[in-house]
Amino acid sequence: MRRGFTLLEVVFSLALCCILILLLLGMVPSLIAGSQRTAQELQAGDLAQSLLEKQRTRPFAQLTPGVTTLPQLYTLDGTYTPVLEIDAVPGEPNADRVRRLAVTVNWSERGRAHHIRSEVYVAKIQR
In the predicted model, what is the mean pLDDT of residues 27-50? Predict the structure, then answer.
């Protein structure tokens, strides 16, 4: 009795391997796009958090209500446009002592608009 594989078994195995490789290669573009999208979301989230922290260090009297478009950030991943909103908290009995700070970071990827929004509340401490 001979040991080994028949020609039919070898051809079938090679065909199966080729199909599996083609399927895996077809997933690569979507994996790369997902990775880029995640990197952009992380970049925008970090920008929003750092801008909020910077605003929190300002004196409370300088936190006047309004909307301000901040300077754009240019990176290899894209261009990010942050927008700062400062307003009084609606329904708050001490509205003159509480502010809501919100940063929305906008960017586009392949013609689709994306944004991330972070908020924080700041209170004036009475001394």
Answer: 90
Residues 6+ apart with CB under 8 A from 68: 83, 84, 85, 86
120, 101 in Cβ contact below 8 A?
Answer: yes
Cα 88 from chain centroid? Answer: 27
pLDDT in tens, 68-107: 999 998 988 789 999 999 998 878 777 788 999 999 999 9
- CB neighbour list of residue 118: distance below 8 Å, 6 or more residues apart: 45, 48, 49, 52, 102, 103
Query: Would you list the domain boundaries of the chain?
Result: 7-123
Answer yes or no: are the C-beta atoms of 103 and 83 closer than 8 Å: yes
Could you tell me whether strands 112-123 and 78-88 are parallel, antiparallel, or unpaired per DSSP bridges?
unpaired
| Nearest Cα residue to 94 out of 122, 73, 117 | 122
What is the reported pTM?
0.75
For residue 1, name the pLDDT band (cuts at 50, 70, 90). Answer: low
Cα dihedral: 81, 82, 84, 85 (round 10): 70
